[in-house]
Every structure is written in structure tokens, then in C-alpha cells.
């Protein structure tokens, strides 16, 4: 019994750091105890969630720069603007997701000690916190070069998507697709921050920049890949709780799906580069780098091991996102924009 109890305690301790929203390590140790549940709700440590939001915004800025010739100062300003907005957006959507998902989180070992299920934060307090962060994000809209009203209109699809996302896992096996769309909408907002409008409307017609669409679609597939691996952490509990995901739908057939998504993502990045007239640098760094890092993740991850899924999710997305960002930056430097 002692061995079993110790093993369970070790397992629970490891689950605490797997983005469960209940970690107390690192700089969180120095916070007042009353602050801790709210920081945990916002997932500020580890900062994976923040950068999952910020990366697509950065891609949009850098892609826009290739088309518009932004100065270095303008790129830095737009990046700072998007990083600030991403911080509040990340906080808001994580809190909102936890608020709606609290009944489900209570049924999953990795998430049952999150602030709301364990009673550290009331649903009312979580809702107020969500609204405060959403207001904080909205304060960045007037700072956009496209103006407050136009930028707000462009942000509506993302807002609707993020609002619906917590319910997606209840009614569809494709919440990763919803998440991918929401995250990739950051490319649209980043493009606007860079002074480039990726799509326009004229009556019933929508005109989309082809290279922006390919980058958007590639980013969506990237998100589906890493979030499907993330979802495998809780596969057993999710099946018992009736939580739907691509991990539940495909289960033993997930890896072939991930390889197909990776190949499609790579093809879309190649087309994006071709449509934007990019050099070999983009293909060598952004395309090859992201394909190699994601390929290593898909090849090596043990989808039956929760810790393996967490390791490759928490490390693999940095390499892929960093490769795409680095490729775009090096392309800008190469052409002397």
C-alpha cells in the first residue's frame, strides 16, 4: 500500500506541471497565497499558452512586413502591441475556458486540482476576472493602425471562436480544429498591426490574399498537430468523462493523421513562400525547420505516455514556432526590407 500511495503521489506531482493549472513552482513560489489561484487560472507559468497566442500574431506582422516594407521600428512597435494584447487575450481565454470546463476538469486527474474545481476561485470571481482581462485586451484595439472600429470588426471571428471553444469538446470531436482557427486568427490581427489587410469584403464577396490564407491554414494545422498530442495526456479520463477530441476519435490511428497534417502544413508553407516571392532562406529555416521539429515530435512522442505527450508538446511547439518566426525574420533581413 505504501508503494502504491507513493507512486500515486509521484504521478500527481508530475501531472501538476503538465499545464494542469495548479503548479506552484518557479516564480509562483514568491507570490502571496491569495494571488496564486488567479495566476494559475491565467496560465502565466509556464508561459506556453501566452506564446501559443503570440506566435501567430508575430507571423502576421513578419509576413506583412515582407509585403509592406515596415521599418525595424515599426516592426518592434507592432510586435510590442501584439505581445501586450496577446497577454490579455491569453489570460481571458484560459480563465474563460476553465470557468466553462470546471465540471469536466473535476473528472480528469490532471486538471481536477485547478483553481475552480478545487474551490480556490469561485465561478463569479472567475467571470469577473475574465471580463477584466477581455477589457484589457480591448484597450489595445484603438492603438492599431486600422483604427478601433475596423479592427474590432476584424476581431469578431476570433472572439466568437474563443467564446465557443470550451463547448466544442462537448459537441464535436474536432475541438482542435476550432482551437487552430482561433489561434491562427492572430495572423489576421498581426497583419493588421503591420499595416497589411489580409482580406477585404465587397458586398457578399470576400477577397483573401492567397499567401496570407496559406500561412493561416498552415498555422491552423500546426496547432491541430500539437494540441492533438496535448489531448492524449488525458485520453483515458476524457473517454470516461465523455470529453471529445481528435485524440479520442482517432486513438490508435492518431500518428498517421499527424503525419498527414504535417505534410499538408509543409506544403502550405511552401506555397506561401512561393506566392510571397521568398528566397531559399525561408524554405531552409521556416519550412524545413518547422517540418523537422514537428516530424521529430510526431516520430518520438509516445501517445500512451502522458509525460511523453507533455514533454513533446511543451518543447516541440517552441521549435516549430521559432523556426517559422526565424525564417520570416531572416527573409526580411535578406531582402533588406
UniProtKB/TrEMBL annotation:
UniProt topology in membrane: Multi-pass membrane protein
Keyword annotations from UniProtKB, A to Z: Isoprene biosynthesis, Membrane, Mitochondrion, Mitochondrion inner membrane, Transferase, Transmembrane, Transmembrane helix, Ubiquinone biosynthesis
Enzyme Commission number: 2.5.1.39
Range of residues in the leader sequence: none
InterPro entries: HB_polyprenyltransferase-like (IPR006370), Prenyltransferase (IPR039653), UbiA_prenyltransferase (IPR000537), UbiA_prenylTrfase_CS (IPR030470), UbiA_sf (IPR044878)
Any one GO molecular-function label of the UniProt entry: 4-hydroxybenzoate polyprenyltransferase activity
GO-annotated biological processes: terpenoid biosynthetic process; ubiquinone biosynthetic process
GO CC aspect terms: mitochondrial inner membrane
TM region(s), chain numbering: 48-66, 78-99, 120-141, 147-165, 177-197, 203-225, 261-290, 310-333
Pathway(s) where this gene product acts: Cofactor biosynthesis; ubiquinone biosynthesis; Secondary metabolite biosynthesis; terpenoid biosynthesis
UniProt xrefs under HAMAP family: UbiA (MF_01635)
Stated family: Belongs to the UbiA prenyltransferase family.
Protein purpose: Catalyzes the prenylation of para-hydroxybenzoate (PHB) with an all-trans polyprenyl group. Mediates the second step in the final reaction sequence of coenzyme Q (CoQ) biosynthesis, which is the condensation of the polyisoprenoid side chain with PHB, generating the first membrane-bound Q intermediate.
Protein name: 4-hydroxybenzoate polyprenyltransferase, mitochondrial
Species for this entry: Petromyces alliaceus (Aspergillus alliaceus)
